[in-house]
Amino acid sequence: xxxxxxxxxxxxxxxxxxxxxxxxxxxxxxxxxxxxxxxxxxxxxxxxxxxxxxxxxxxxxxxxxxxxxxxxxxxxxxxxxxxxxxxxxxxxxxxxxxxxxxxxxxxxxxxxxxxxxxxxxxxxxxxxxxxxxxxxxxxxxxxxxxxxxxxxxxxxxxxxxxxxxxxxxx
Length: 170
Prior knowledge:
Elements: E1 2-7, E2 10-15, H1 22-29, E3 48-51, E4 54-57, E5 70-72, H2 74-77, H3 85-92, H4 102-117, H5 136-142, H6 153-168
Parallel strand pairs: 1-5
Antiparallel strand pairs: 1-2, 3-4, 3-5
Helix pairs in contact: 3-6
């Protein structure tokens, strides 16, 4: 199947089996190996990417479903010499150990901060009319789909809170 994917601001023409997952298209056909294949069942979040501003598990969706969509992987968020604010904060707060889950964590956190900015409530949001705060409880709930086998959750939450405060101008 001939299709074009817009990934990290670049258009890519691909010839794929229509059963190819977005994750496999990114890793195996475009060489973007930041997104990881953890469980391949949408339960760990290692494959999280941002599609049209929303985070998704790329192992659970077909590449052909995203022709024309804006897809952002961790490679599109920053580079080794120009880290995104979240990437920098993950380093500062030791938000990783083995690093396997880190790309998915960073993509998820990036989109999650956008959700908070838009005022989208979560299951733990108490006041649905007030501006949502990036509290420990909110971050923990919203990031619960991203697992870290090394248990770096305190550093991950601290990194996200730092960036949320910076973005809020606090």
